[in-house]
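Listing S7. Sequence submitted for prediction.
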Amino acid sequence: MTEYAPGMRTIIRDEEWMIRKVETNTLGNKTLYCVGISPLVKDRESIFLTDLEEIKVVDPADVKLVTDHSSHYKRSLLYLESQWRQKIPTDTNIHVGWKAAMDPMPYQLDPAKMALQKTRQRILIADTVGLGKTLEAGILMSELIARGKGRRILVVTVKSMMTQFQKEMWNRFTIPLVRLDSARIQKIRANLPSNYNPFFYYDKTIVSIDTLKRDVEYRTHLEHAYWDIIVIDEAQNVADRGDHQALRARLAKLLAGRSDTMIMLSATPHDGKARSFASLMNMLDPTAIADPDDYRPEDVKGLFIRRFKKDIQDQSEGAFLERTVNLEHCRASAREEYAFEIFSDMQLQMDVGRERGNGHLFKTSLEKALFSSPAACIKSIDVRLKKLNKKYGFGDIKDIGVLESLRDALGRIQPKDFSRYQELLKLLNSPEYAWDRHATDDRLVIFTERIETMKYLAQHLREDLGMKEDAVQEISGGMSDEQQQKIVEDFGRTESPIRILVASDVASEGLNLHYLSHRLIHFDIPWSLMVFQQRNGRIDRYGQKKKPDIRYMVIESNNKRIKGDVRILEILVQKEEQALKNIGDPSLLMGKFTIEDEELVVASAIENGSDEKFSKELDEKEEDFDPFKAFMESADEEEQAADQTSTTVDDMTLFSDKDYMSQALSFLNQSVSHPVEELQTVSGLDVKLTEEMKRRLRALVPEEALPEGETLRLSDDKSFCMEEMKRSMQNDMANTAWPKTQYLWPLHPLFSWINDKSGLLFGRGQAPLVALPGKLAKDELIYVISGSIPNRKSTPLVDEWFGIMYEHGGFLKIMDMDEVLSRTGIRAPSLTNPDLEVAETKERAEALLQDVVVHAKAYLKEKYQDYQDKMNPLLNEELDKLADLQKRHHQYYQITLADYARKLEEKERGVDELFEEFTNWVTDTLTIQDNPYIRVITVFSGAEQ
């Protein structure tokens, strides 16, 4: 009876399949779980019963050598290339990610290096705003795709970021994510049977977490879908907050179990509470933390990485230009001072009896609006007056009269009396500021907290600067996601008429505003350092080419109360800059990790009139305040260790990407028309798409990224593609701005089609015989061998390409591929095929195939043993660690549920099931099967001319 094993290649129903798993039933019959290898069934999963199917195990020695008569041996070389490019990296080095369409800084490779050291690639990338977390995720995803671990990908993000994330992944990494909004999902459903899971329709998708949480039906579909990689952007939104577990958090926990690989991104990874951070760590590794309120750095080691600008200065010279920060002092007008006086003297009955310092005083919230604009303060007063009048009627209530007096005073403040607005106009017209409103690359971002202030500024700036309606644009949370996204895209396009973007804080999170803008003005000063960080990060970020210029409009008043309160805001500005340079994370100064909590601290300081005390408290906390300092240091050590064991690798093959595609299409053009031409102005190709190519691309690539015409423009010039990407985002007003020229590199989806086609140049069970007179002696033979050894999950843990050389019919030596290329000279620009008669050589070469396989197995046995020697101690260490963690989980529940026997039993059973699952997974993943899969790819021989 045949002994089937994972990794074994078989012929079933005349197609080639690789066995992934073998199960034996009580009758001794076996079930084979397989994945397709040959083109017709490639990547398809299927199950076969050995007692019902005719199954033939592929014998590596059962190879028919085929003499290549093609010019320059093109047929053989393209076939060899197609197979070689499918070799899977099994080390921890960076093979492709560093070649993406970006200028990667060394620190941006670190998350991938760290993750690849682990059995499972599960990591929180928690770098501060502007360092390029999306790009770091793309690098890791690229490495996993190259390793065969990225066929199915799900990205979950906030709605406003979907298009931006999708474009970054496609333009830089050619990772094709299809946007699954509600409309797209409904469209898919309309074309599918009612019981079909829409998440199986596309392999690589991006979806909004709000879309997922709205429909309970999506949960069922998620529970029955599985991905190779799941990415959760803005991951702080899915963390537990206190005892409350939001729907977003529950969805994230569900997704955490639907993929081996999980990548989380967040610039604000914790709210200062151990339990909240633990919830993210437990999504990445449910075995890591037993007690979410008490855990150690070693418990989460390797699960996250966090850097600030100060941490990567030595690696990023020139990548981040030091920003200039200025406070623009605005002397209050007489009418403003009058309003300030009324406000300062105002005592509201509604605030009497309320606890001071909790930030709930209405007067404090009114001052926040006052510091934004008279219009914003009037709006707040009107809303409160409406409530008061409804409650008390229009009687003589003291608060109503006081609020109406303040409202009247604010109403008299005309634009000419509004000092910050007048200073803004003066600044924009100032020769020193040198803002060029006509330049396409000198656009201005003005942030303000209140919608009324935003509208006021937009209206009056148009009038006073003589600018057209579309030159001054607003963006706020009240707009639809499509409107927001269009405004952001237009702001980054040179052809767009927008010159000033007046934004509420909806635009302060995640969006890229730096392409044509390096100027940012805080018209009002936030009461949260996290908002400072988010706002400034829109222009002060990786990719900014000009020195960021940041201005704060500061009220200057004679009123003692106003002066003191403004001083508190000035302290925030100073401390934010100071913290950015000293500790990296300004949010650490307050010890609060939500915007709301930070605003309460500032409100308390304002209510107590304690600017000096406030400043002193911030100084004290800056000295040594970080509840997660030890965790960050642990992450630093992990990063340094990964950097020492991983490096970037430029994998060797026969052809460059461009030459391979060009020569493959030209060769295939002999039988089916595949026109391809060189681009004239840059290195690249113009490929005429056949219907077959279009079908393949339509199944993989989002329709927005598909070429409009019949040709596909590809360039291997990285700099050109980056410029093209920038141009497409800036110039194309007619559509959604996808580059017309795509990046030609190993991960482009068209290469999968090229590999399939080139792999069919020789049939199953065939290998080319290439005669090389003048390179090899007549009696010399070199067999190019591909050999892989899988784990129990059929993933290759060893994947080797090597040569076996024979001389005079006897084994001579094993050769690495460098030596094979050197001896054969097949990488020469033009290899002549003399088309000799080699029947005798062919017969001799075929007769040695059994011996070749014996030597290949012996060589791979050495690799197997090397792996065993290296991995067995690590496997034992991993299993011991899991056993220790299991005990700790049991101890935690035995203490916390000591009085609840039934619940304790339930929890302990759950712990045992969890750790059994993880133990089996680790064992199956790290245990190598002594069952190498060997293929003879090509045979080179000498010959007489």
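Caption to Listing S7: primary sequence and predicted structure tokens for the chain studied. Residues 95 and 649 are 5 Å apart (CA to CA). The mean pLDDT is 87.
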